[in-house]
Design goal:
The protein is mainly beta and about 130 residues long. The protein is built from 1 helix and 8 strands, in the order H-E-E-E-E-E-E-E-E. The relative contact order is 0.20. The structure holds zinc ion.
């Protein structure tokens, strides 16, 4: 099934996707200004330095915002189940948009602690997702 929404790897993101396949969440940190940078990119968005180093996140953070997607993005998604999507503020100071696994939308709260898990889709792509911390 080709949904045309596969994450595409590039020279700037291959390290990120490889780490995800290994169950590790990476982000970048600017050697010049020290800011954490996410998503992976060739230059710091704060100071434009191209000296970015990879760091491994502990994968813990809190929900900044969330919603529930009730309609599939593509008609090919036959077995679509509503899913929860949110912006996660990671403890290292960056944020990312990701799916949040939970039983019910009503279970989610802004500020709730979450931890990363890795969804190996079996097609060579492993997606970092989050779930409510126990
Ligand atoms: Zn910088």
């Amino acid at each position: 099934m080709d949904l045309h929404n596969q994450p595409r790897s590039s020279v700037d993101t291959e390290g990120y996707w490889q780490a995800a396949r290994e169950g590790r969440l990476l982000f970048q940190r600017c050697r010049s200004c020290g800011e954490p940078v996410f998503h992976p990119r060739p230059a710091c968005p704060y100071c434009l330095s191209d000296e970015l180093d990879w760091e491994q996140s502990e994968g813990r953070g809190e929900i900044y915002s969330f919603t529930t997607q009730h309609i599939p993005l593509h008609q090919a998604e036959q077995a679509f189940e509503p899913r929860h999507l949110g912006i996660i503020n990671l403890d290292e100071g960056f944020h990312m948009f990701a799916e949040i696994r939970t039983g019910s939308h009503a279970d989610l709260r802004v500020g709730q602690r979450v931890t990363v898990w890795f969804d190996d889709r079996g097609d060579g792509v492993t997606l970092p997702k989050f779930e409510v911390a126990s």
